Amino acid sequence: MLGFGLFLRRLFRRRIVLIGALILLVLIVVALAAPWISPFDPNAVRVARRLRPPSAVNWFGTDEYGRDVLSRIIYGSRASLGIGASVVMMSVACGTLLGILAGYFRRLDGPIMRVIDAFMALPDILLAIFLVAVLGASATNVVLALAIVYTPRVARVVRASTLVVRELPFVEAARALGVSTWRIMSVHVLLNVTSPVLVQATFIFAYAVLAEAGLSFLGAGVPQEVPTWGTMIAASQSFSDQAIWLVVFPGLAIVLAALSLQLVGDGLRDMLDPKLRKSL
Amino acid sequence: MTVQGDPLLSVNGLSKWFGSPSQGVRAVNDVSFSVGDGEVLGLVGESGSGKSTIGRLLLRLLDPTNGTIRFEGKDISALNERALRPLRRRMQMVFQDPYASLNPRLRIRQILGEALDAHGLARGKARAARIAELLELVGLSADHADRYPHEFSGGQRQRIGIARALAVEPRLIVADEPVSALDVSVQAQVLNLLQDLRRKLGLSMVLISHDLDVVELMCDRIAVLYLGRLMEVGTAEEVNRNPRHPYTRALLAAAPKPDPDAPKAQRLLKGDLPSPKSPPSGCVFRTRCPLAIEACATTVPALETVAEGHAVACIRSDVQELMTS
Questions:
Q1: Which CATH superfamily is domain A79-236 in?
Q2: Which residues of A touch B119 (CB under 8 A)?
């Protein structure tokens, strides 16, 4: 086990990873502190000030109802990042469970992995659109749909690691001691598959933020009255030729979030993989 | 408890085939031996001879294909995992690789505690004391308990592995090459520890090794394996002084001697271990045996007693001279 300080120092040895982590940190702080830092009420309609370009008052301009775009982006980060985080948690939980079961119990391996292969054969966004269409468009269902879409990725990675870990001598030692199968899976295997899961989780976070925006833009996601980065772009479609800022700023937010998560994920992968190879 | 006169562990006709019966690997073939109370049996052989497989079969970490394993007078060869649980307290294993046999993500306290928890031993307040006691028993100190495995050297890790095995107070320990992954300087320390513990706790042991010196030092009796079959079994003294099987003799002759003036060891064996997928007919050793005759290809030699406590599986064991051409 690495100490936390050493962990961070190794992770940030590459400057670009540090930049990604800082952007991510800023986004998270912004989301958490939204009520205190947002200059206006994100839903306050002021028709007199509609479609104003960026100015000293409205830094990112106003939309077709005169609502402040900056405030809406700040509040939108809550929904966008919140949905992303929920998707990560759900898909990591389900994927880890399925992956360990498939990897540890050889008899479950076939059935579980064939279903997972079937899900992975479908394009992510199409599957998500289909699921949202079936479940109905709401923030909860978007989370559910995306969690179903990304669970197979986690399950595959976890299964592969489990196959390695289950053959290691310390698992054999635990069996020789009479340690229960449940404990072997939930302690010995779980603790030793966390590194690849962590890497996957960061990437899934990035995909989920992008996918939520995509779904909302297509109208197959969060209802438009809820400000998310995706719904903001979707709502501005018909004004985008006269008010380009309505597209640019939410778009930038999406890019920053996805990019920073990808950078951190890359950093984690580069740091954890060689160590993983050494320790396994 | 053991029935009087019954050995602690007795193995009869033990076989293990991996893969299909027709094409699979015959890792262990019709092996029989016993280990008495407080006795140390050495299992010797080259890599691929099936020693580690036997160790795992004894602990039922693998299921035998054939044969019986009796422990404390009870047949354990067909018990399921649940029925084995109480037995796990009575027999334990020390592993070869001290770097892989401890979970890198757990503290020593958790590693030893898990052994105790598995059998409901030393609960509550007694736990910390028991963990400290175990660490001291293997020559470590109580404040090592809160460290992670990577903070220890190979020798120390192996001590922790031994402490884990001892946590459940077993009667029998199967030690699978316990020192072969360690530096030579550390090997002696760990072997001394094992011997001390054996004396102090009255342990029986099955010591798996390819190192004849280790086996000679540690064991009361020695069983020599070749390609999954027993070649020779006898007291350590008998096997070392008076080896009867040509394979044992070749092994002993090949062992390096500490005396620089001693005549150079002759290489009596040529070639490699044949594939256990298609072992030679008759005596499995005949393809490398300097004494092989035609009859060796047709009969599988049975283990026959040649002297008190000394059995050999060779139809040529009466031939004393190993030919050196």
A1: MetI-like (1.10.3720.10)
A2: 178
* ipTM score: 0.87
Assess contact for A146 and A140: CB atoms under 8 A: no
Which token pair is B68? 């019986």
Give yes or no for a contact between A38 and A218, defined as CB atoms under 8 angstroms apart.
no
What is the rounded end-to-end Cα distance, in angstroms, of chain B?
Answer: 54
Cα–Cα distance between B290 and B321 in angstroms, integer?
10
Q: Chain B 176-235, CB below 8 Å of chain A: which residues? A: none
Question: Domain residue spans in chain A?
Answer: 79-236
Closest by alpha carbon to B255, among B276, B272, B269? B269
State which amino acid sits at residue A70.
L
Which stretches of chain A sit within 8 Å of chain B by CB? 1, 168-170, 172-181, 183, 187-188, 191-192, 279
Question: Among all chains, which residue has been given the structure tokens 């978007």?
Answer: A142
| Cα separations in angstroms, A232 against A218, A222, B16, B96, B257 | 12, 11, 67, 61, 83
Q: How confident is the model at residue A277 (pLDDT cuts 50, 70, 90)?
A: very low
Torsion angle in degrees (nearest 10) through CA of B88, B91, B92, B96: -130
Residue-wise pLDDT for A106-132, tens only, equals: 999 999 999 999 999 999 999 999 999
Flag if A178 and B105 touch (Cβ within 8 Å). Answer: no
Q: What does R_g of chain A's alpha carbons equal in angstroms?
A: 22
The H or E element that residue B135 is part of is: helix B125-137
Measured CA to CA, the distance from residue A45 to residue A47 in angstroms comes to: 6
Nearest to B61 among A172, A183, A279 (CB): A172
Kind of pairing, strands B66-71 and B74-75?
A: antiparallel
Q: How far is A272 from chain B (nearest CA, A)?
A: 14
Q: Which of A255-259, B296-300, B320-324 has the lowest mean pLDDT?
A: B320-324
Residue A13 has φ and ψ, to the nearest 5°, of: -60, -35
Contact A169 B106 (CB under 8 A): no
**Would you call B150 and A1 a contact, using CB atoms and an 8 Å cutoff?**
yes
Cα of B29 to nearest chain A Cα, Å = 23
The pLDDT assigned to B323 comes to 52
What's residue B1's pLDDT?
43
Widest Cα–Cα separation across chain B: 69
pLDDT digits (tens, 9 = 90+) for A36-59: 999 999 988 988 888 889 998 889
Spatial contact of A157 and A196, defined as CB atoms under 8 Å apart: yes
Taking contacts as CB-CB distances below 8 angstroms, the residues of chain A near B106 are 187, 191
pLDDT > 90? residue B212: no
The Cα–Cα gap between A206 and B163 comes to 46
| Residue A190 DSSP symbol | H
Q: Which of A97-106, A164-173, A270-279, B137-146 has the lowest mean pLDDT?
A: A270-279
Structure tokens at B241: 């002084």
Question: What does the domain layout of chain B look like in residue ranges?
Answer: 245-325
Tokens in use for B140?
């470590």
